[in-house]
Design brief:
This protein is an alpha/beta fold. The protein folds into three domains: 2-122, Alpha-Beta Plaits; 127-245, Vaccinia Virus protein VP39 (Rossmann fold, 3-Layer(aba) Sandwich), CATH 3.40.50; 251-452, 3-Layer(aba) Sandwich (Rossmann fold). The chain is 29% helix and 26% strand. The strands form six sheets. Strands 17-16-15-18-19-21-20 form a seven-stranded mixed sheet, with helices on both faces. A four-stranded antiparallel sheet has the order 2-3-1-6. A three-stranded mixed sheet has the order 7-8-9, with no helix packed on it. β18 (384-390), α12 (393-406) and β19 (407-419) form a beta-alpha-beta unit. α12 runs parallel beside α13. It starts with a strand and ends with a strand.
């Protein structure tokens, strides 16, 4: 996907007023780059292995506005098609007006120049690698897969290959190094170690390499298991000594949703008298969504009720992509999915490939529609025939105005994840957003509320 990036060079003191003023011409949301130091409060909320070294604050700032480019090389701004030069001139007009308006206020706009360039989707998952290089923890060399060992006079006692991916743990942070030194103090060949919050698995894997008998790791992050598996393989560690990554598979077997057979990759279809209208191959990996839950099945039935060959569907909280992929298999024209989980895109890609779905028909956006204006802009407005959201009511209620804004006139909003007794909360949120509640369906203790714009 291609984007036009409009960059404004300014001063940090003018960031807020510029971002706000650009909204008047349809430029919503901006990426802000400056060298303003982090406050003590901001630092207290951060706990990271790698923090880039900030330059001295010179007061300058760069604001970047991203707008999706059409096939004709233009952009759509509040429904109007414009060239990059037209948008640039509009932005320059805003800046000129602001210079007059802020003349007596003491706010310095600074350079105020606007540049336009074309950019591809950012590979943000790998951008952190530029900050992670090989280093030593005493006599242990820690090195990422994309580097070769530097020539040193000393020989490492042990070389640990670590790629954290999107899981926590490179080993660079002082806290990790303190743990490693203490583990070495007490480790014996009989040691069984439990690593709570294992992340990339660095502590457990290093313990096994140093001779521990076995290791167990726990983590809340669904990105941890694939990172751990890669790091075990990179270091030649026996996976049988830490095999919790695939245990969930014993609980996920093929099942039916009406006339649709849902089956994981490690199973063969069972012999049945009935033939499925459609077979959906789904491997959720570490992303949410197998299709087994009642809430997902309620969504699927409602989607089938309204889906046509012209349908453009938005799946908010797409997870493994099950709702969007199934919609495409049933004949929808296109699908867009949003999710907060960085494990979602690789799971979605695998499931599209497993089901022969054209990847050009499914766009995935990582981000939060409730909190991030830029994500809402990427999703678009009045574009979708169906918006589906299988999330809890506490999220559905604040989400609903933004979901409604994404719907075409006459489009339907399908919500699930709603326990019995909570459906009125969601229905009221729909009415406040200008939707008409059409149906409330049920399966067990779960409810699905559908509204129309």
């Amino acid at each position: 996907m291609k984007w036009m990036r409009f960059r404004v060079r300014t001063r940090s003191e003018a960031e807020d007023i510029l971002v706000s003023s650009m909204m008047d011409i349809g430029m919503y949301g901006a990426q802000i780059e400056d060298n303003v130091p982090l406050t003590a409060s901001e630092k207290e909320q951060m706990f990271v292995d790698i923090l880039p070294q900030a330059r001295e604050d010179d007061g300058t700032a760069v604001l970047s506005f991203y707008v999706e480019e059409t096939e004709r090389g233009t952009v759509l701004i509040d429904g109007a098609e414009k060239t990059g030069d037209q948008v640039r001139r509009d932005m320059e007009g805003v800046i000129a007006d602001l210079r007059v308006w802020t003349g007596d206020s003491g706010i310095d706009i600074g350079e105020g120049t606007v540049s336009v360039e074309e950019t591809e989707d950012i590979d943000w998952i790998n951008n952190w690698k530029q900050y992670f290089h090989q280093f030593w923890i005493d006599d242990i060399l820690v090195i990422p897969s994309w580097e070769q060992p530097e020539q040193e006079e000393r020989e490492p006692r042990l070389t640990l290959h670590i790629d954290p991916g999107t899981a926590f743990g490179t080993g660079m942070h002082e806290t990790t190094q303190l743990c490693i030194r203490q583990i070495r103090e007490y480790l014996t060949p009989q040691t069984r170690i439990l690593d709570i919050g294992t992340g990339s698995g660095i502590l457990a894997i290093l313990s096994l390499m140093l001779g521990a008998a076995s290791a167990t790791g726990t983590d809340l992050d669904p990105c941890a298991p694939p990172a751990i598996l890669e790091n075990m393989q990179a270091n030649g560690v026996d996976p049988d000594k830490l095999d919790w990554i695939n245990n969930w598979k014993q609980y996920f077997h093929q099942f039916w949703i009406d006339d649709i057979l849902v089956i994981p990759s490690w199973e063969q279809p069972e012999q049945e008298e009935r033939e499925p209208r459609l077979t959906l191959h789904i491997d959720p990996g570490t992303a949410f969504g197998t299709g087994m839950h009642e809430t997902t099945q309620l969504c699927i039935r409602q989607i089938r009720e309204y889906l046509t060959p012209q349908t453009r569907i938005l799946d908010i909280g797409t997870g493994s992509g099950i709702l969007a992929i199934l919609s495409l298999m049933l004949g929808a024209a296109s699908a867009t999915g949003t999710d907060l989980d960085p494990c979602a895109p690789p799971a979605i890609l695998e499931n599209m490939q497993a089901n022969g779905v054209d990847p050009d028909k499914f766009r995935v956006i990582l981000g939060n529609m409730i909190d991030e204006q830029g994500i809402r802009d990427q999703v678009g407005y009045e574009k979708y025939d169906i918006v589906a959201a299988n999330i809890l009511p506490d999220v559905l209620v604040p989400l609903t105005p933004y979901a409604a804004a994404a719907l075409k006139k006459g489009g339907v909003y399908i919500t699930s994840g709603i326990l019995e007794g909570k459906e009125d909360l969601v229905a009221d949120a729909m009415r406040k957003a200008g939707l008409t509640v059409t149906t409330v369906t049920a399966q067990g203790e779960w409810r699905c509320v559908t509204g129309r714009k």
